[in-house]
Amino acid sequence: MSLAGFLPQDVSLTIAMALCAVAFVSGTARGFSGFGSALIFMPLASSIAAPRLVAALLLVIDFVAAAPLLPDAWRKADRKATAVIVLGALIGVPAGTYFLSVLEPVTTRWIISCFVAALLLLLLSGWRYRGKDHTWLSVGIGSLSGFCSGLAQTGGPPIVGYWLGRPIAPIVARANIVLFFGASDFFSMVSYATTGLISRESLVLSLIVGPVYALGVAFGASLFGRANEKVFRGICYGLIALAVIAGLPALDGVLR
Question: pTM higher than 0.90, yes or no?
Fold first, then answer.
């Protein structure tokens, strides 16, 4: 049986190959720099296939890719501080999932493009929170990140900017981030499943796109230490900006 025979009914071979190409590029960005995969993948992929389908697809393949990191993160993280932010995600993720499930696809795409553009500006600004630790602020950051994750799997920049600015060891900050997103992804899996977003189509597609994404992550990781990190980060920022522009619904008549 050909590859086309395994594809969901609404996904052609051309669409699947395009999603694989986007997944490889976004996976390479994540493998090298640890960020940028969702910010590249979501604007482009949601212009190729339904936003609900590609958000569920990214959640599944990224959840599988990140799972092996959780045991080490559990040992090294400040679990008490992380639990406070996770509480925020427990609020934000269902809210973001709700909007993803009820909004029209074009509306969702506009929101994704605006979100990603705002998050790119946050990354470019180099923002790091260096103030005092407040419970209400931690819950708020967790809620914002959770909402972005529930809606478009783009919750990385707020939580990374918050944790990397804290006066703690980098290894603890990284473990906190990994542990937070493990919990956030779990909430998203439950939330997506209960709203029907985790479907047979998204699972089948993940079996095709997932390995290509993993290859991109491995390729990006192999470049770490060989390529200039500053230059590569600049390339990632440029790719995110291009993804935002190319994914704009206003350009559908020109690019698609």
Answer: no
Percentages (nearest 5) of helix, strand, coil residues in the chain = 80, 0, 20
CB of 188 closer than 8 Å to CB of 97: yes
- Report d(CA 180, CA 185) in Å as an integer: 9
Tens digits of residue pLDDT in 99-157? 999 999 899 999 888 888 888 887 788 776 677 777 888 899 999 999 989 998 888 87
How many Å from the N-terminal Cα to the C-terminal Cα in the chain?
29
| Residue 253: exposure state from Cβ atoms within 10 A (0-12, 13-18, ≥19) | exposed
- Tell me the β-bridge partners of 227: 224
User: Quick one: which of 93, 98, 66, 90 has its CA closest to 175?
Assistant: 66
Q: Exposed, middle or buried: residue 237 (CB in 10 Å: 0-12, 13-18, 19+)? A: middle
**28 CB-side CA count, 13 A:** 14
Q: Which of 159, 88, 82, 90 is nearest to 128 (CA)?
A: 159
